[in-house]
Every structure is written in structure tokens, then in C-alpha cells.
């Protein structure tokens, strides 16, 4: 009884530890009041490359004394035009100016600012802009939410008027240009917003001249700032396409020599444009409109280098990497999709001719050299995405031909990874390459996540800070690869242990993967954790063999729902600033704004489905599996019948990838990334299984308790046999399947059992002509 209960008790312990790890979250203390006045100074297009001690001495001094960061100027439209950026600043949410605009460009019309008196101003278009954002756009932003949160605000310049206009269009105090002595104006209200101009173009001399003018304006603002005031300088919009990371500097009490960050990014040195409004209110100690603001207050953290030049080099280098990543990612995934489709077509004739015939007649087998080359190509294709992730450890974006350097580094890593798999112990076994490839992929992604996900930020197969969707943890591609690799590793390990312990192994490996994906300290993807939980539950239900019966499906569903509901309840009970995506969605459902979240997710799914090259990878992989590998001649059904834990891992991968993509708004991207790893090694394993389909059993090699004393020499038993000869072969007791083929022990179905059990030889002395070969 104790031996039977031990795997179950250990499995429950793993689940409890996993839930405990998922519910722990870092505590983000709300910043307290640090200033009596806040001045928000905006400059459209200001990048870190524009700053130096000679051209911009005031900006340089502010950066030395204050806190700095890279600002993502995401808005409801892309690119973020200056007027969209100013509107987003005042809304604390992703907003955009209404009106027609050219594709990828900005509207030419300026903002109309009326001055009915000498004190304030009025924006006649504001009411239509508010209606456009709330009725037409998916974010439900309210322009003017920031000025509505204070009693009085000041605006200097037309851009500042857009940010400081209340929802009905009124600007409390307004000046079109900075007065000669702005001290009285800046001290008249607790919040002042100043438009310092813009820096545009790619000509270095032109940008330097514009940056010098901005610095001169800022010098006057700092000289006239009220006592005990905080000054925030930020680039508020793009002046040309493509988008770039821009400058963010905070100067004043509480902002001394640090990195700027916010809970919305979770990464030191990064914040979003929507974070500036809540940061200003937090510095003033004013309550925030939680339902209106999407951003979170920024804070200053330590760890910045003492030398400002060294500190600035980091965000400037990140900006260059993010700019290079955009173009390289497109052609990398396009080439990967084309290569995998071509490889799938090349594998089809090999699958047709891979099954050996025991009789004298049959098609000539394919040359062993050709099969070996195709196997290496399949391994290389499966390792392409992990190699591309690892390639970001080299600074390929700093060269003149960034794309070629990235391609060279990636190819070298693919070759090295393929060689490591080829010469790894157990390569000749049927599941040898599958286990090695899955282990390498899980290792690359897992180590990156454990070390801060530095390879995924702005990486070709990661996520871009310019997009503003994610700044830390696992990205869409990383999630797909890690889900597939971890479940395949679990299936490979489970296949090597006795049947009673397979559930324990699958839950242990899958539970560890769920913690890595969902923990806010690591992957920070609660939706991915929920999807992977469903996949692990399905895999655990069928890892011991047999079909996914109603009772097994019920237990798997109950386990997944219990973990998901428990995690969601705990997340919902946290303060709003500490909630994950699941808690924020449930809170939105409670306050009636959940429909916007569903609408945004649906729109993102549709757009990604049409635009992403990963969709082609997912569809091509599904076509190869369904039309070839799962056919009677394809080998995958035979593989599943003999290795039920592998079948369970692949089924769990499909469930997790599908749920994660749909709920995460990435359509088939997660499935495409998972398929890029799973489909090539599944085809390789199918080739090897078919290659052993006519292996004969030999006398005297049976397991204890086998009445016939005979044991089928299946694909799990080829560990120490040369794959260049023909059967008959002697079974290997140390087989991949953890003690023997499951074909005679499970209810895999009549066809799988018949295919997995070769004919037996009654006695060595019997003439070979009396043997009956397996069809």
C-alpha cells in the first residue's frame, strides 16, 4: 500500500509547492508624496543619442543628479505621433487623436487652441476626441483624466494644451510660449505641463541644433521651478517611423541617481508613457482614478553606474537593438517557415519507404547516408528558435550589417547544437534525439528566464520594448518553445521509469515548468501558466497509457480548474498595483470594463493570425502531422502506441499552446513556436520507429513473468544496436521505455497493438522459411 501511495503523495506535494510558488509576488510599495509641485516637460523625438555634455549641458546635469530610464511611447495608434503622445500623457491610458491619417504616418492638421480670455484656453475638438477614444478605440481612454485629478494645471505650448485639456476642452492656465519669467506661471498650479519642442530627422547636425534649443528652454524652466518641485523630462512621441525608445529623466526629491522603473514594465530602466500621469499624481500625494489610468507610478531604484556615460550607454544600446530587431525578426521567421515547409516535403517520401519489409520483395530502402543527413537537418530545424534566442548574447546589432551578423551567429549556434545532439549519449536510441533536443531547448529558455530574461528583451525571437506589450519574463515565442520542451522532457523521463511513477514524473516536470512560466519573479505570464496547467493535466492523465476517457478527462479538468481558480482568487485579493493579468481581468469584469479587454484580445488574435509568419509555421506543422505522420504509414501512431508518455507530452503541448495563444491574444503564435520544435523531432522519431517496425523477437529475452519467455524488440530496444543492419535483433533490457514496450500492457487500440507487436520466432532451429513476417 505504501509503495502504491508514494507516487500519489509526492504528486500532491509537488502541486502544493507549485501553487505556493505561484501565489508569491513581489511587494511594490506605493510611492508616497515627495513634492509640492510637478513640472512635466515633453520633447517629441528626444533620444539618448541626442545627449552629451556640450550640446545639452542642462539635460546632462539633470541625468547625473536624477533618475533615468528608457521610455516606450506607445499609444493607441502606431506610430505614436506627437499629438497622440501628448493625449496619452494626459489620459494615463493609450489614446489617439481622431481624424484621417496616412498609412504609417501622422495627420498633417495641427491642434486648434482658442483663447477666449487671457488666463486659460479651449480646445474645440476635445469632445469629439473623447468620444472617438471611448467609442471607436479598444482602450476606453478618457483624455484629460490627469488634469481632472488636480484642482489646477498649467500648459505652455500647443502640445501641452492637448495633455492639460479637461474632457470638455478647458485648459485652466495657458501660454503659447514660455514667458520671459515663467516663475509666477509655474508656481500658480501644482501641475505644469510644458512643450519644449521636438527633435526630428536623421541628420546629426540638425538633431544637435534642435536638441540645443530644447536644452535652452529647459534651462529656463529649471531656473523658475517652484521650491520642492519634481521635474519630469520625457520624449512624448515619434517624429518619424519606425518608433524608437526615448528619454525619461526625473529630477527632484526622491529621484536621486537611480534607474526609473514601474510595475507596468517590471524591469529596471524602462517605463511607459502611460506611467507619467500616475507618477505625477503619486509625487503630489493625490488619489488616482484607477479605472481611468492604465499606467502605474514610476519609482527610482538603485544599481545605476556612477559614470553617467556608462549609464546612458545601456539605454542607447537597447534602443539600437530594438530598432534592429524589428527588421531582422521578419525575415528570420519567414526563412524558418520556408525551411520547415521544404523539409516537411522532403520527409514525405522517406516516411513512405522507411518501413522495412521482412520478405524478399519490397521497395529498396533509402540510403542510410540520406536518412542520416535528413535526421541532422530535422534536428537543426528544431533547434533554430533556441539558437536564435541564444544569438542575442552576442551584440550583433552594433555592426553595420546587423542582419547578416545575426544570421551568422545563429547558424553557428545551430551547427554547434546539432553536433552536441549527434554525439550525445544514447543518440542511436529511438527517443535519443527527441530527449536531447527538448533538453537543450528547455535549458536555453529556462536559464534565460532564471537570469532575468535578458536575451528575450528586444531579441529577435523575444519581445520589443518599442511594442510596449511586455518588458520582462517569457514572450510569446519563448512560451511556445518552453511549453513544448518541458512537456517533451517530462514525457521522455516518464517513459524511462516504471508505469506507477510516470504520473509523478510528468507532474513534477510540468509543475516546475508552470512555476517558471507563472511566477512573477521569473516568467511573469499568468495566462501562460494557466494554459500550461491544462496541458500538464492532460499529459498526466494519459501518460501511463490508454485513451483519454471521460473519467480521466474529468479528473484532468478538475485539477486544472482547481489550480486556476485558486491562483485567480489569490491574485484578485492583492492590491491593484500588484495584480497579474488574471487579477486585472477579473477586476475589470467586476467594474464593467471587462468587455474592452475581451475586445482587445479578439482584435489582437485576428491581426496576429493574418500578419504573423508563425501562423504559417503552425499550419504547416499541423498539415504534416495530420496528413502524413498520423497516417497508417506515417509512424506517429506506432510511436504513440509504444511510448504513451510521448503521446501524452505531445497532446499536452497542443492543449497548452492552443489555450495560451488564444487567451494571450497571440492567435497561433504560441502553437507555431511550439510546432517549430515538436514537428521536426516528431518526424525524426517516426522515421526511427518505422525503421524498426519489422524487428523480430528472440528466445530467452523475455521479462520475468512472461509466460512465453519471449519479448518483442521494439523501437525502445535499439539502444545499443547499429542502425545500419537488418533485423533480426536481440532485445535490449535497458530500453527507452523503462522496462519494456507498453504495447502489450495498455489499451492503445487494436491497430496500435498489432503494429507494435512483431511476429515471434518459436525456436532458433526452426527454418527461416517458416517465419511469418509482420505486415
Structure description:
- With 775 residues, this protein is an alpha/beta fold.
- The chain has two domains: 37-304, 3-Layer(aba) Sandwich (Alkaline Phosphatase, subunit A); 328-691, no CATH class.
- It contains 25 helices and 14 strands.
- The strands form three sheets. Strands 1, 2, 4, 6, 7, 8, 9, 10, 11 and 12 form a ten-stranded mixed beta sheet that branches. Strands 3-5 form a two-stranded antiparallel ribbon.
- Helix 11 crosses helix 13 and helix 14 (432-450) runs antiparallel to helix 24 (669-691).
- The chain is elongated and about 100 Å long.
- Residues 697-775 have low confidence and may be disordered.
Q: Mind summarizing the main beta sheet?
A: 10 strands, mixed
Overall geometric form: elongated
Instruction: Give the number of helices.
Output: 25
Span of the ends, CA to CA: 43 Å
The domain tally reads 2
Number of strands: 14
Mean pLDDT over the residues: 81
Radius of gyration over alpha carbons? Answer: 31 Å
| Helix-strand makeup class | alpha/beta
Low-confidence stretches at least 5 residues in length (pLDDT < 50)?
A: 697-775
Features:
Alkaline Phosphatase, subunit A; 2 domains; alpha/beta; 8% strand; two-stranded antiparallel sheet; disordered C terminus; 775 residues
Topology at a glance:
Blueprint: H1 2-23, E1 37-44, H2 57-65, E2 67-72, H3 82-91, E3 121-122, H4 126-135, H5 145-148, E4 153-156, H6 158-164, E5 170-171, E6 173-175, H7 183-186, E7 191-198, H8 204-224, E8 229-234, E9 246-251, E10 258-261, E11 270-272, H9 276-284, E12 299-301, H10 308-354, H11 368-382, H12 384-391, H13 402-422, H14 432-450, H15 476-494, H16 499-518, H17 526-542, H18 550-572, H19 581-591, H20 594-611, H21 614-629, H22 636-642, H23 644-663, H24 669-691, E13 698-699, E14 710-711, H25 750-756
Helix pairs in contact: 1-16, 3-6, 10-11, 10-13, 10-21, 10-24, 11-13, 11-24, 12-13, 12-14, 14-15, 14-24, 15-16, 15-17, 15-23, 15-24, 16-17, 17-18, 17-23, 18-19, 21-24, 22-23, 22-25, 23-24
Amino acid at each position: 500500500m505504501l509503495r502504491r501511495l508514494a507516487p500519489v503523495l509526492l504528486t500532491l506535494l509537488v502541486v502544493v509547492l507549485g501553487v505556493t510558488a505561484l501565489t508569491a509576488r513581489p511587494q511594490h510599495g506605493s510611492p508616497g508624496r515627495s513634492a509640492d509641485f510637478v513640472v512635466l516637460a515633453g520633447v517629441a523625438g528626444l533620444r539618448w543619442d541626442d545627449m552629451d555634455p556640450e550640446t545639452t549641458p542642462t539635460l546632462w546635469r539633470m541625468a547625473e543628479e536624477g533618475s533615468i530610464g528608457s521610455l516606450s511611447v506607445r499609444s493607441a495608434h502606431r506610430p505614436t505621433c506627437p499629438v497622440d503622445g501628448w493625449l496619452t500623457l494626459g489620459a494615463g491610458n493609450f489614446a489617439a487623436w481622431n481624424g484621417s491619417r496616412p498609412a504609417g504616418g501622422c495627420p498633417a492638421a495641427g491642434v486648434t487652441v482658442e483663447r477666449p480670455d487671457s488666463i486659460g484656453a479651449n480646445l474645440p475638438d476635445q469632445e469629439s476626441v473623447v468620444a472617438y477614444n471611448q467609442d471607436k478605440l479598444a482602450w476606453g481612454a478618457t483624455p484629460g483624466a490627469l488634469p481632472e485629478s488636480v484642482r489646477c494645471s498649467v500648459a505652455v505650448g500647443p502640445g501641452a494644451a492637448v495633455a492639460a485639456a479637461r474632457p470638455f476642452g478647458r485648459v485652466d492656465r495657458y501660454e503659447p510660449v514660455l514667458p520671459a519669467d515663467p516663475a509666477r506661471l509655474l508656481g500658480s498650479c501644482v501641475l505644469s505641463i510644458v512643450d519644449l519642442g521636438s527633435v526630428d530627422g536623421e541628420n546629426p547636425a540638425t538633431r544637435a541644433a534642435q536638441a540645443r534649443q530644447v536644452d535652452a528652454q529647459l534651462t529656463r524652466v529649471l531656473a523658475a521651478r517652484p521650491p520642492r518641485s519634481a521635474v519630469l523630462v520625457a520624449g512624448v512621441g515619434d517624429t518619424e517611423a519606425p518608433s524608437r525608445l526615448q528619454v525619461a529623466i526625473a529630477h527632484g526629491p526622491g529621484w536621486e541617481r537611480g534607474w526609473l522603473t514601474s510595475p507596468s514594465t517590471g524591469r529596471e530602466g524602462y517605463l511607459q508613457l502611460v506611467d507619467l500621469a500616475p507618477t505625477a499624481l503619486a509625487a503630489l500625494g493625490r488619489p488616482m482614478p484607477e479605472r481611468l489610468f492604465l499606467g502605474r507610478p514610476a519609482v527610482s531604484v538603485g544599481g545605476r553606474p556612477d559614470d553617467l556615460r556608462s549609464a546612458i550607454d545601456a539605454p542607447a544600446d537597447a534602443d539600437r537593438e530594438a530598432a534592429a530587431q524589428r527588421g531582422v525578426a521578419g525575415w528570420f521567421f519567414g526563412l524558418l517557415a520556408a525551411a520547415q515547409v521544404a523539409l516537411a516535403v522532403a520527409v514525405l517520401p522517406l516516411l513512405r519507404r522507411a518501413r522495412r519489409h521482412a520478405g524478399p520483395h519490397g521497395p529498396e530502402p533509402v540510403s542510410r547516408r540520406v536518412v542520416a543527413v535528413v535526421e541532422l537537418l530535422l534536428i537543426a530545424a528544431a533547434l533554430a528558435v533556441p539558437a536564435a534566442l541564444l544569438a542575442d548574447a552576442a551584440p550583433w546589432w552594433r555592426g553595420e550589417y546587423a542582419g547578416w551578423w545575426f544570421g551568422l551567429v545563429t547558424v553557428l549556434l545551430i551547427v554547434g547544437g546539432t553536433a552536441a545532439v549527434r554525439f550525445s549519449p544514447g543518440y542511436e536510441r529511438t527517443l535519443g534525439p527527441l530527449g536531447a533536443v527538448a533538453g537543450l531547448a528547455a535549458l536555453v529558455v529556462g536559464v534565460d528566464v532564471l537570469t532575468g530574461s535578458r536575451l528575450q528583451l528586444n531579441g529577435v525571437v523575444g519581445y520589443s520594448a518599442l511594442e510596449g506589450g511586455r518588458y520582462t519574463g517569457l514572450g510569446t515565442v519563448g512560451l511556445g518553445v518552453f511549453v513544448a520542451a518541458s512537456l517533451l522532457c517530462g514525457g521522455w523521463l516518464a517513459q524511462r521509469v516504471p508505469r506507477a511513477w510516470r504520473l509523478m514524473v510528468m507532474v513534477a516536470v510540468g509543475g516546475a515548468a508552470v512555476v517558471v512560466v507563472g511566477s512573477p519573479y521569473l516568467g511573469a505570464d499568468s495566462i501562460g501558466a494557466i494554459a500550461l496547467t491544462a496541458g500538464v493535466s492532460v499529459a498526466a492523465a494519459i501518460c501511463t497509457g490508454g485513451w483519454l476517457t471521460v473519467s480521466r478527462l474529468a479528473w484532468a479538468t478538475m485539477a486544472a480548474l482547481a489550480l486556476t481558480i485558486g491562483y485567480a482568487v489569490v491574485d484578485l485579493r492583492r492590491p491593484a498595483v500588484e495584480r497579474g493579468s488574471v487579477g486585472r481581468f477579473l477586476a475589470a469584469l467586476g467594474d464593467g470594463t471587462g468587455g474592452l479587454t475581451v475586445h482587445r484580445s479578439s482584435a489582437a488574435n485576428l491581426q496576429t493570425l493574418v500578419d504573423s509568419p508563425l501562423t504559417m509555421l503552425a499550419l504547416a506543422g499541423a498539415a504534416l502531422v495530420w496528413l502524413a505522420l498520423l497516417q497508417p504509414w506515417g509512424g506517429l501512431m506506432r510511436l504513440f502506441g509504444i511510448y504513451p508518455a510521448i503521446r501524452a507530452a505531445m497532446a499536452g503541448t497542443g492543449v497548452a499552446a492552443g489555450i495560451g495563444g488564444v487567451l494571450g491574444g497571440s492567435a497561433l503564435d504560441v502553437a507555431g513556436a511550439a510546432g517549430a520544435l515538436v514537428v521536426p523531432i516528431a518526424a525524426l522519431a517516426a522515421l526511427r520507429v518505422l525503421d524498426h517496425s519489422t524487428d523480430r523477437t528472440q528466445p530467452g529475452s523475455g521479462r520475468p513473468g512472461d509466460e512465453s519467455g519471449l519479448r518483442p524488440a521494439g523501437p525502445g530496444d535499439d539502444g545499443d544496436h547499429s542502425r545500419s543492419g537488418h533485423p533480426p535483433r536481440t532485445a535490449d533490457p535497458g530500453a527507452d521505455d523503462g522496462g519494456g514496450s507498453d504495447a502489450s500492457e495498455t489499451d492503445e487500440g487494436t491497430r496500435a497493438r498489432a503494429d507494435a507487436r512483431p511476429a515471434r520466432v518459436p525456436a532458433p532451429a526452426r527454418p527461416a522459411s517458416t517465419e511469418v513476417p509482420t505486415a
